[in-house]
Design goal:
The chain is built from eight helices and four strands. It is α+β, with helices and mostly antiparallel strands. The chain has a four-stranded mixed sheet. The longest helix has 19 residues, at 2-20.
Length: 184
């Protein structure tokens, strides 16, 4: 249900931005609002509290964001609040960001390696991903997981390329256990 809510409202905001020709500026504003919300959990819990009247919540939204972001985004946040959907605001705004990135062909790649990668290695990986995908830009996230032993795991959306030594060893172990079972 929450995913449907995120998609419905996120898609509506996307359509407003496309129709208004404000996709880039709306993306910047939404990213900023999302960052503010993520860093203020107390604010979110107040806006989600069932005993605080909706009028007061709307007033809090307007006070916090009016004049700092577009009227369209303030109106959107007010609508979310009035509809009682503020609990899903982070997922709604995240959906909007992902939708804009999809439209602009910006991919998000999560690269996990066994050791810290040099800047040149990071650049080479990004260039290779740009050459082998339909994306024109990537938002790269790097992480280190020593349990991989060597190699790396690259995730782009729901696609995974796993060239880690750990996975290769696990695959070999499974194959060897099948051979031992069939010989018994």
């Amino acid at each position: 249900m929450a995913k449907l809510v995120s998609k419905t409202y996120g898609e509506a905001l996307f359509e407003v931005a496309v129709e208004g020709g404000t996709l880039d500026s709306m993306l910047e504003e939404v990213e900023a609002v999302l960052e503010v919300l993520k860093s203020n959990e107390e604010y979110i819990s107040i806006l989600n509290h069932p005993r605080i009247p909706i009028e007061e919540k709307v007033s809090m939204i307007e006070e916090a964001f009016k004049g700092k972001v577009s009227d369209e985004l303030v109106g959107f946040l007010v609508t979310i609040t009035e509809k009682g959907r503020f609990a899903e605001i982070e997922s709604i705004l995240s959906y909007f960001i992902e939708r804009v990135w999809e439209e602009k062909r910006i991919g998000v790649a999560c690269v996990t390696s066994a050791t810290e990668l040099s800047e040149q290695q990071k650049k080479d990986i990004e260039e290779k991903l740009l050459a082998t995908t339909s994306y024109v830009e990537f938002r790269m996230n790097y992480d280190v997981d020593k349990s991989l032993i060597g190699g790396m795991v690259i995730r782009i959306g729901d696609r995974v390329v796993d060239s880690s030594v750990k996975t290769k060893l696990e695959t070999m172990a499974r194959e060897l256990s099948k051979i031992q079972l069939s010989q018994s």
